[in-house]
């Protein structure tokens, strides 16, 4: 539901002066110690200043603030990260009253409908980059609650690359196109990123996720979302519990494979954006369940990982995810810029009953997001843009600034006052207001990291242990591709040595592909696994699955009708692909409208291909377009359906007449049975047991 809520020429003298100026501006950064912009020496740029090693970040940390402030304002007006996004409106409803956990009003009434706006995004690329690059995906949700706006600002991976926000500029600088040549775009497969990784062991866990299929989601509708950081839920009694937030897609978690993702990027850079838009435009909804992991404060130190460490997840087998509500997306934006581009998320946007932890990544994010909006949206009044406007009345003494949109009446703009009878007043008992949890903080002012954050390999090993065979192969191939793009061989070896601390088999296979030496003393540090981490265990559904039906004149319309009726009844959809647009005549002179051609579409846009029988088989058999369509479908492990005379097209596949998993090729004598078998194969998704080599 929408909320109203270049080159130029110069004279020689000028040109020479310009050259002199440029020479004077050149600075070499290859030697010497780090300093602030004021020339003050810096001995530690890895840890922010805290009150105790596990305590909150201190506002007096001018080194952190200078570093992150400069980073936040490096690019205008595009977002520094998450520049390419796609948004949708919807609503959220909680399943049951959660007032025993939190006093947040929108989580207390199952009958309450809370409007939301969601923005999905890639991280590394510019606004014009492709959707299907290997990257983390942003998953940000703005709840327009009756107590103010609340944002869950997360990703589709539950962990992050770094433990302390002071290192975020370094991470993104390494990931972005290299500054000397502005290449590559929207890719981590280059030297600077991997140089950062091999010199920063804490990145290992997120890197494992980045090399997994999670980094190339099939659809924004089919990826998980995670709040990443640890927060607190606080109830009306002042009692708190630690919490992590999860978004679980109703359709399950599904991905592209790498060859497929690369081809999609070339054929339709807007693949994920288009999928979200068209799904909603067709009247279908996009659904996610909100889950929480809740931990009692007395259990804070119970585990072999630190619950405040953002490079660690809480295994669901140890701390179960409780599904507490559902988010339904059902309306596209009316204007991309006004809504999707101008929406401003911030993890500091919380409501009473939701509070922060001392997670050092979160502590830095609380400052950085707000600071970034000041630059990107032109000043302090971005909250007055319709997409960012809260439902309750904004009532304070903040005035003026760039792009002020309200006309604030009255003589006073301060508090306390008597000229306006003390109004607006500080919230009193019984009036909704935010109170921070009163945590006792006792520690030395220190720039160090807690010893409990120093295990960088146990959870990456657990992630590897949890993967299915096809997910493991995807990870191995991804490491080989990414490092294969790096020119510096020492980076290959250092990465392989790091992987030896995760799993010897993984290190061995990556080393083989890179020509590196496997580590002699590698060892997997744990036997633990978490089945919840594997996409092999996700939900599967035929709903919104898309089938390409290849037709030419002379197809069997009865077979076509039976198969497509089964698809529609199951919530799937199809395109008719032919050599030209317009009506295609069946053998019985019936007609079907062809809405795609081999020039306008490709197999990578579909979950399956189906060809009915009929005399058109001979024409299809001699078509290079059809052969290429079938080969890509086969090599990407997707379902292929051939009924009646179309069974002869099996000869176009590498397996020939040999039956392979996911190829539904049966007599069309009983089309009801055939259609159900095809639907079952389509629902399965990919058939990784197929031999595509």
Describe this entry's structure for a reader.
By secondary structure, the chain is of the alpha+beta class. It has 3 domains: 50-379, Catalase HpII,  Chain A, domain 1 (Beta Barrel), CATH 2.40.180; 465-536, Up-down Bundle (Hemocyanin, N-terminal domain); 540-684, Rossmann fold (3-Layer(aba) Sandwich). The protein contains 17 helices and 20 strands. Strands 2, 3, 4, 5, 6, 7, 8, 9, 10 and 11 form a 10-stranded antiparallel β-sheet that branches. Strand 7 (231-234) and strand 8 form a beta hairpin. It is globular. The protein starts with 11 loop residues before the first helix and ends in a 9-residue tail after the last helix. Residues 1-22 have low confidence and may be disordered.
Tell how many strands the DSSP assignment holds. 20
In the CATH classification, which architecture of the largest domain applies?
A: Beta Barrel
> What portion of residues is helical?
25-40%
Number of helices: 17
Distance between the termini: 48 Å
Major sheet: 10 strands, antiparallel
Poorly predicted parts: 1-22
CATH superfamily of the largest domain: Catalase core domain
| Shape estimate | globular
Overall mean pLDDT stands at 92
Question: Which structural class should the secondary elements be placed in?
Answer: alpha+beta
Rounded to the nearest angstrom, the radius of gyration is 28 Å
Q: Supply the number of structural domains.
A: 3
| CATH domain fold name of the largest domain | Catalase HpII,  Chain A, domain 1
- Strand-residue proportion: 15-25%
* Top-tier CATH class of the largest domain: Mainly Beta
Catalytic activity: 2 H2O2 = O2 + 2 H2O
EC number: 1.11.1.6
Domain Catalase core: 35-423
Binding site for heme: 79, 119, 168, 365, 369, 376
């Amino acid at each position: 539901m929408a909320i109203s809520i270049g080159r130029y020429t110069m004279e020689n003298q000028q040109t020479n002066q310009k050259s002199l100026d440029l020479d004077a501006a050149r600075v070499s950064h290859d030697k010497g110690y780090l300093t602030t912009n004021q020339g003050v020496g810096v001995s530690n740029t890895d840890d922010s200043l805290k009150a105790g090693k596990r305590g909150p970040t201190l506002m007096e940390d001018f080194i952190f603030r200078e570093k992150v402030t400069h980073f936040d304002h490096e690019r205008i007006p595009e977002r520094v990260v998450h520049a390419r996004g796609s948004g949708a409106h919807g609503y959220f409803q909680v399943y049951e009253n959660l007032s025993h956990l939190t006093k947040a009003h929108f989580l207390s009434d199952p009958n309450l409908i809370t409007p939301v706006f969601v923005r999905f995004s890639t991280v590394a690329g510019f606004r014009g980059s492709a959707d299907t690059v290997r990257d983390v995906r942003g998953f940000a949700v703005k709840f327009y609650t009756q107590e103010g706006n609340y944002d869950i600002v997360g990703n589709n991976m539950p962990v992050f690359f770094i433990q302390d926000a002071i290192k975020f500029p370094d991470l993104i600088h390494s990931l972005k196109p290299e500054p000397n040549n502005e290449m590559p775009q929207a890719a981590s497969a280059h030297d600077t990123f991997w140089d950062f990784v091999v010199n920063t062991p804490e990145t290992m866990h997120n890197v494992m996720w980045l090399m997994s299929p999670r980094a190339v989601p099939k659809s924004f509708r089919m990826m998980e979302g995670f709040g990443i950081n640890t927060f607190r839920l606080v109830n009306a009694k002042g009692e708190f519990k630690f919490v992590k937030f999860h978004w679980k897609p109703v359709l399950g978690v599904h991905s592209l494979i790498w060859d497929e993702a690369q081809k999609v990027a070339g054929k339709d850079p807007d693949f994920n954006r288009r999928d979200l838009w068209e799904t909603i435009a067709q009247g279908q909804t996009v659904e996610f369940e909100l889950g929480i992991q809740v931990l009692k404060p007395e259990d804070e130190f119970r585990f072999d990982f630190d619950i405040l460490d953002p490079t660690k997840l809480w295994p669901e087998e140890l701390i179960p995810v409780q599904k507490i509500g559902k988010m339904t997306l059902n309306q596209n934006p009316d204007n991309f810029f006004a809504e999707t581009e101008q929406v401003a998320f911030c993890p500091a946007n919380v409501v009473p009953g939701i509070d922060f932890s001392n997670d050092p990544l979160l502590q830095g994010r609380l400052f950085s997001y707000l600071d970034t909006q000041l630059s990107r949206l032109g000043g302090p009044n971005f909250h007055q843009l319709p997409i960012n406007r809260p439902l309750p009345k904004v009532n304070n003494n903040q005035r003026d600034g760039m792009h002020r949109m309200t006309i604030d009446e009255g003589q006073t703009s301060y508090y306390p006052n008597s000229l306006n009878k003390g109004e607006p007043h500080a919230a009193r008992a019984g009036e909704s207001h935010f109170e921070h949890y009163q945590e006792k903080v006792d520690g030395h002012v220190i720039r160090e990291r807690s010893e409990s954050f120093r295990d960088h390999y146990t959870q990456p090993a657990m992630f590897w242990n949890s993967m299915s065979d096809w997910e493991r192969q995807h990870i191995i191939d991804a490491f080989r591709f990414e490092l294969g793009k790096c020119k510096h061989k020492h980076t290959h070896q250092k990465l392989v040595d790091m992987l030896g601390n995760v799993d010897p088999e993984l290190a061995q296979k990556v080393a083989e592909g890179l020509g590196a030496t496997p580590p002699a003393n590698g060892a997997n540090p744990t036997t633990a696994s978490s089945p919840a981490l594997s996409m092999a265990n996700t939900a599967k559904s035929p709903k919104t699955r898309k089938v390409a039906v290849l037709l030419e004149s002379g197809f069997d319309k009865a077979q076509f009708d039976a198969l497509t009726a089964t698809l529609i009844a199951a919530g799937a959809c199809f395109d008719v692909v032919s050599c030209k647009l317009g009506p295609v005549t069946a053998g019985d002179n019936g007609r079907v409208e062809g809405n795609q051609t081999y020039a306008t579409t490709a197999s990578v846009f579909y979950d399956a291909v189906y060809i009915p029988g009929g005399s058109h088989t001979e024409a299809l058999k001699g078509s290079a377009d059809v052969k290429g369509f079938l080969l890509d479908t086969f090599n990407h492990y997707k379902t292929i359906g051939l009924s009646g005379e179309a069974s002869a097209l099996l000869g176009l596949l590498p397996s020939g007449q040999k039956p392979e998993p996911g190829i539904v090729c049966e007599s069309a004598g009983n089309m009801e049975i055939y259609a159900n078998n095809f639907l079952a194969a389509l629902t399965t998704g990919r058939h990784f047991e197929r031999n595509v080599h």
